Every structure is written in C-alpha cells, then in structure tokens.
Amino acid sequence: MCLDLPCGHIGHNQLNRRQLLAGLASASALAGTAGCVATNAASGRDSFTGLQSIKDDIAEGRANHPKILKSFGGAYEDRRLAGYVQNIGLNLAKGTEYQQYPYRFTILNTQIVNAFALPGGFVYITRGLLALASSEAELAGVLSHELAHVTARHGAERRGAQQIAQLGLLLGAVGLQAAGLPSDLMQIGQTAAMAAIKGYSREHEFEADTLGVRYMSRAGYNVDAMVSFLGSLREHSMVEAQVLGLPRGKVDEFNIMSTHPRTVERVKQAQIQAQAAASGGGSGRWRRDEYLNHLDGMLFGDDPKQGVIRGQKFIHPDLRFEFQAPAGFHLRNSPARVEARHISGAAMIFDMAPSKGASTAAAYLRHVWAAKTQLHDLENIVVDGLQAATGWAEGRGQNGPVHMRALAIRQDRGRFYRFMYVSPLNQAGRWARPFRQSGLSFRRIGERAAANVRAQRLLVVPARPDDNIAGLARTLPYGQYNESWFRVLNDLAPKQPIRKDQRLKVIAG
Ligand SMILES: [Zn+2]
Questions:
Q1: What share of the chain is helix, strand, coil (3-state, %, to 5)?
Q2: pTM score above 0.85
C-alpha cells in the first residue's frame, strides 16, 4: 500500500500523510476518486499508481513470473549466458533510483523477438532478441528500457488507471483475431501475465527510453546503441512480416515492436533529452567481442523440445507426431499452438486440448469444442489409425464472414489434437482440398525420425575473403528470405558487402 510509503514522497497536490491516516476509514472512497498520487523518484512525475505499493509490485511480479515462463517456453538453460545477462542487468539496476526491487533477468527459451518486464523488477529477454543484438551495449539498451518500465512503475500506473480491464489485448485472443478467427470457438484462456506485458502508451515508451539512456550511460555504455538496435529490430520486423505472410509493415503481435511501440525519431529525442540532463553522451563502451563470445553456440530457432518447423512441416520429436501445412502457408510455433497463415487471409491453427469427458471425437467436437457453434456435416473419420471427427461452421472474422473447418483427432490419453482451418467464406471452395490434405497428413513418428530432428545453433565465425552472403545464409530456415534475415542478423544493409574484419553470426545444423 502506498501508505507504507516506500513508493516515494506524497505529492504536493495530495493530502498530507496525517490526513491520509486519519482518512483511512474512507480509504476505499479515496481510491475511487483520487487514488494514491506519489512522486516517482525515477520519472520525477506525480504518478497515479492506485493503491499499489512497491511491495505489491514485487508480489505481482512473483505471482506472474511462473506464468510468463510457461507462456514463453521456459527459461533458456545456459548458465554462462544467463549469468552474463544477469550481471549486465544487475550492474544497470545499480544506477536506478530504486534499489528495493529484487531485480532478476531471465532469458526466455523462444525465437520470438521480445523483451518485457513485470512490476517488481522481473525483466525478460528472449533468445530471439539476443540473436539479433550485436553488442553488449545494445543488450544493455534493451535491459535499461525494461528497467525503466519497472522503476517508473508503468505497470502499476496502468493498473491504477484501470486500463487492464479495457485492454482486452490478451495474447492468445489477439493472435486469433489476427488470423480472422472468432474466439468463442477457440475457447481462449486468458491470463493476467499476458495482460501485464501488453500495451504501453507512447508517453510511457518515451519515458522508458529517456530513463533507459540515463541508466546505460551511468553504467558506461555508449547510448547510441539504443538507436542502432532499434534500427535492427525494425529491419527484423520487416523481414519477419514477409516470412509470416503479413502485409508489409504490419507487426506481429508477439513482436517487441508491438509491445513497445517506438520509433527511431522518438528514441533519438529521448537520447537528446537524457543527455542534456546528464551533460554527457556520445562516448562509452560497446563491448562487441565480449557479447559475440557469449552468444557463440546459442540455440537458434525452435527448441526441438517444443517442436520444430521444417519447410511446410511441423515435427514434434518429444510428442512424436508431425503434419504438413498447405503449400504457401507460413508456419509459426509457440508454446500454446502452431499457427500458419496464407497471404490470402486463410489460416490454420493446431493445438492440443483435454477431452473434458468426451469419449468420442464426434462428441468432443459437438459438445465441447464447438458447443456454442452451429456445426455442419459432422463426420467420423480415421487419421493415422486414430479416431477423428470433422465438421464445418460459418463465423465472423475480422474482415467479414469466414468458413471454419474443425478436425479433432483422439490421442490415447484423454486428449485431442485439434486442427482449425479458416478461410474467407468466398474462398472456401479453393481451400477445401488443401485443408483436407493437411489434416490427413497428421501422423505419429517413431524413435528414429524423432532422433533425426536436431537443434540449430548460432555460431560466431570470422569473415573469410571468399565468403558470399547467399552461401552463408543457406542454413537459415526462412527459405527465400534467408539472405534478408542473414543481413539483419549481421547488421548488413541491403547490398552492403561483408566487412573484412567482421565476425559473422551463422546458423549451423
Ligand atoms: Zn517499452
């Protein structure tokens, strides 16, 4: 509670402490009208943080930490790299105005490119983001920005302003809306942890950059790294949109450019503002070699433990199955589901769900999965020797009416593999056959096939005189976009040749 007052000083425009204590009996009324306005030591602003104290921040972070791990593939278990990131983070945290938080920096085991923070000092950075950065200073820029969201208490402020309730930006639901799916059929689970990472305002972003530049420069890093890395993140988003078949410039909702809406111009502005206050700037460390040394050998792409994408195929060596997406679909793996999209707006989603007491695939489809939907032409089929059922329904997607084909395949232990195929209603005929073929491609795989699925790793190698980009990029998993991806990974502009002394990130496996 703010009344314990670790959250700063009472603002001049507020009641004094004694008045507050005297008015404790009507605290709820107070919360309803004024809340707790306190001057934040990092931002210097009187901020509205509801009745949430720093202690509450920490409790909220602790409670949501396991949910974040679960939603993003767990922590990446590499002690050397994890220790390196934690040390950089703790060093930056020493320069913040709040030493009370139990700062903790976690690498998430996912290829998604993102970073975020929970209230209370819990900071997350993904493996995918680490792969993109090229220096310790760039990493420090990201961590500083996240630290600033913590110290400026943006999470608490947002909660105080009760925006969480309006957000409705829960990760799963957003993903499905983007695919044009009505969410009732998908029965999306919503979690507070997901809400916690979404949707900072531009003002919060600007403040996080201004404070982030301050923390970076206090730790001796070159603050230009914040701008240079934002450039890399933007380039990456462009290539990623192409890979995923999204319209140019559209940012996927899992991406850092969506959770932290920033522009190079505004970050530069924040830099100028922060430097004017600190009367320094320009110089500082980059520590490129140290960073690349730590990155060498890191897992790249999907962790086989979570299933991998190989061309049109998704293979899950641990759960022992595979299937094919229709030609032209771009697949994407996440802990909860596999999504694939086609540029025409057609999409497929694969996941697994408990049977909830349904003993047959048809019963599951009718009474559990599609319980609230008018299902047509329900038929029993067999897929890879397993009992299955399929049917279709019409629904309303983001861009008009959609045709949905649902396929449930019964696993042995009270669970179902589920395929949902969606297309704009007027394209239903075009996709009927490819969708059917994709569903029927599901099959279980044996030990040997599972053992053949190897992880890819990022290696750091010196450039050689005979290196050419097409050759080096060939091991990336992005097909026709390999070369663009390679350039983003290695800070090379389009058509820019490899520098003579450059250390290159290449993908092995
Ligand atoms: Zn941010």
A1: 45, 20, 35
A2: no
